[in-house]
Amino acid sequence: MVVSVASECEIVLEGRLDVHAVAEVREALHAAIDSGTGDLVVDLSQVELIDLTGLGVLVGADRRAKLAGRRVVLRDAGPRLMRILRATRLHRVLTVEVPVAV
């Protein structure tokens, strides 16, 4: 898993968001939430796979952000990830940015 801080309000995740990567991702998300203001955008366009622990990290970051008066916004969640979010009903809990059709 590669975690890149694109700006103070955007993080890009690349690779597998699974049990082996959650510690690194959690640390980066918490640091970004604690140090910034406004929405924190998490770009998921390069995420190949996500498991239950990865989903748990996103839910935990969302909860932490809400306590800080912020939002975590998931960007570019591909079709596979969207199916998982719908199946788990997390699309109702997490803020998912919907692409604008042109």
Structural overview:
This protein is of the alpha/beta class and 102 residues long. The chain has one domain: Transcription Regulator spoIIAA, CATH 3.30.750.24. The chain contains three helices and five strands, in the order ββαβαβαβ. It has helices at residues 22-35, 52-67, 79-87; strands spanning 2-7, 10-17, 40-50, 72-75, 95-96. The chain has a five-stranded mixed β-sheet with strand order 1-2-3-4-5, covered by helices on one side. Strand 3 (40-50), helix 2 and strand 4 form a beta-alpha-beta unit. Helix 1 (22-35) packs parallel to helix 2 (52-67). The longest helix has 16 residues, at 52-67. The chain is globular, with a radius of gyration of 12 Å. The termini are far apart. The mean pLDDT is 93.
What features would you highlight for this structure?
102 residues; alpha/beta; Transcription Regulator spoIIAA; 5-stranded mixed sheet; 3 helices; 5 strands; 38% helix; 30% strand
Global outline: globular
What's the number of domains? 1
On the 0 to 100 scale, the average pLDDT is 93
Low-pLDDT stretches: none
Derived structural class = alpha/beta
The count of β-strands is: 5
| CATH architecture annotation | 2-Layer Sandwich
For the record, give the distance between the C-alpha atoms at the N and C termini, rounded to a whole number. 32 Å
Concise account of the structure shown:
With 102 residues, the protein is of the alpha/beta class. The protein has helices spanning 22-35, 52-67, 79-87, and strands at 2-7, 10-17, 40-50, 72-75, 95-96. The protein has a 5-stranded mixed β-sheet with strand order 1-2-3-4-5, covered by helices on one side.
